[in-house]
Amino acid sequence: MLRELDIKNFAIIDNLTVSFTEGLTVLTGETGAGKSIIIDAVNLLAGGRGSQEFIRHGASKAEIEGLFSIDDPKHPVFRKMEEIGIDFSEGDVLLRRELNDKGKNVCRINGKLVTISILREVGGALIDIHGQHETQELMDEKRHLHLLDQYSGKSLSKAKASYANTYEKYTKLKREFSSYNENEQQIAQRIDLLTFQLREIEAAELIAGEEEELALERKKLQNFNKIYESVSAAHEAIQGESKGLDWVGSAMSELEHAASVDETYQSHSEMVSGAFYQLQDTATEIKRMLDDMEFDPARLNEIEQRLAAIQSLKRKYGASVEDILIYQETQTDELDKLLNRDQRLQLDQQKLKELKEDLKIDAEELTLLRKKAASRLSKDIMEQLRELHMGKASFEVVFEPFAPGKFDRNGGDSIAFHISTNLGEPLKPLTKVASGGELSRMMLALKTIFSKHQGITSIIFDEVDTGVSGRVAQAIAEKIAAISVHSQVLCISHLPQVAAMADQHLFIEKRIEKKRTITAVHELDGRERTEEMSRMLSGAEITELTLQHADELLKLAKDRKLAMR
Prior knowledge:
This protein has 565 residues and is of the alpha/beta class.
């Protein structure tokens, strides 16, 4: 559930902190008081589109932070967070988003900086926002299959995974098969190009690591004179007349004489003696190296040409010799496939045929499971619609098979929700016949069914009850309350029937402070709540009669909630 929401410098909100409870929270207040602004802020936490226009006038950035508490350690959001390396040991999820006046977004989850797409993925697993104009899933037939699969739950997951695996293999092989079946001219041109490239690489006889070795050798040759002079000077300093070795030899003799008289100097004598002989050996080795040193301009030229040839190949085939060798391997494989394409075509054609048959079997299994789920969904929807006073409506999930042999990533057919809202009328696509009020009730019916299985911690309704009244309003209120049994629900409403069912009632109002308009939130209870309910019933003036009606409505709502839970 969303436990706490903190908003700073967002629209007309200066600094606002709201704590929420479990169950149903209703937000009421005059039109324009800022109720929808609070929902907009929550929507940003779910990865919704941000805009500089959201930033309060005079501020450099807007900040929104939401703390969610999740009791279920197996909640899908934890798996997502684990994948991206975010700690969740406390079972809490803190979403934070900042919008600055430069148009940039800063998003964090439990303090870790994340991209907007990751925030959207995690936020979408926690928050489901449904507004009075947000019926895209119902109005888009492409989404109907998703809703049906969501309803099917685990019973369909294994079959979907099997189908997806087969479909991926089939489409990959089909693409390869199509590439082999290109026209002969293109294939011939490709063979010529690959043959030329491979001959050029093979002729170079590249060896992994040789470029580094050649570069080191070139460096030595380019600096031959400096090296020779330095080594010669070192040898002269050690071996030259009256130079290092002679002086160390003198020191060795003197210390040997001293040690023969006083053993205190024995260890020092041995150390200097060892150093003398080491220097003598080193001088001999340096002299040998000097005698062997010889500048070879032809070798330097050979290295330069070899490195230039490697650089030319790198420009064409890879950033390093190793990359070129990998490229050579992949292109050799492709050339082999093209040269032996007739044989490969036969093999792939047979394999395609086998995969297509497997795909057909998996697709038929999917369809069978979906039809069983569709039958259950239709019954559940009808039951919900009856409770929402659409008892004469008929609902059906219509399957439309693809042409024989045709499949997509979801299976071998498409589906659409069909409905008849009046007795005796034929079933027609929901997207073409349902009114706004009917769509709202359809969405509520679906939310009631899915809220038990979705795992969404917070469902938000933004004035979904607009345009209804009377017994339909009461039915919608009870349906929203029923959804809140399984998920926390935040609801903006102008209906007293919905407000009466609330476990928490928040009143939103605009105030003027220091010549600026701000939005304030006040939790109502007792007499204050009765008065707000009275205002919602009467529209403006509060009377003893409207207060009595409000009290009665609250008592009835309390009894209905007890019956639900």
